[in-house]
Amino acid sequence: VCHPLSDSQVVAAWASVPFPALHGYSLHDTLYAYQQDVPWKLLSSCREQKVSCCFAQSVVLRGICKGSHISCPENQATSPLHACESTEQTLQHYLHTMFPGAFSTSHVLEQPCNTLPPYPQFFSPLLTRQGFLLAKPPSYSSAAVESIPVLAALQSSPGLHRLLYSLYKDLRKLNTQRLASFFSAGVEQDDFQEALEKLRTLSQCYEMGSEADESEDEADSD
């Protein structure tokens, strides 16, 4: 895998709004329930890849208490997550487990994201006023959700290769002779072609072995 260019790096955005933290449970227990797939979704337009495919990432989790209260003793004997002494260590251990070999940084902040009006109230009735998940709907009419825990992540991964390479191919198909007004604004044809090649080179920085072979085949077919 080629390293990203020193002056050009691309990341994909992921988020969980709200983060599916269980009411009355610790972060250990919440992450223990997501050992097959991470509890956040891709926001960028690149194709989702296998969970473990990641070069580097930065993750921030807000709205989780930093206390280490354990509510599922039966999990403690089998889960290394429950051996972590803090929420920061728990999240970091989870990231290293789900993304082995990736460089991961993480931060846990207690301050949640406020969802008071005019924030739209489109939340599930399973959420408490603080945005934590209940095991079953309450028997009473729940009040508006005032805040929610949120996780956001920026990730450098092989999925960016296909996104960048697709953009390169689309731009290469442009008939620049029909873009007189574009180039009259100060963009030179040579500069455009140079930027195009830099985009192609940048896409190669995020490809893995099988994708590299696929890109060469696509280039030959073009």
From TrEMBL:
GO annotation, biological process: mitochondrion organization
Domain of life: Eukaryota
One GO location term (cellular component): mitochondrion
InterPro entries linked: DML1/Misato
Stored PANTHER family: MITOCHONDRIAL DISTRIBUTION REGULATOR MISATO, PROTEIN MISATO HOMOLOG 1
Name of the featured protein: MSTO1 protein
Organism this protein belongs to: Pandion haliaetus (Osprey)
Gene designation: Msto1_0
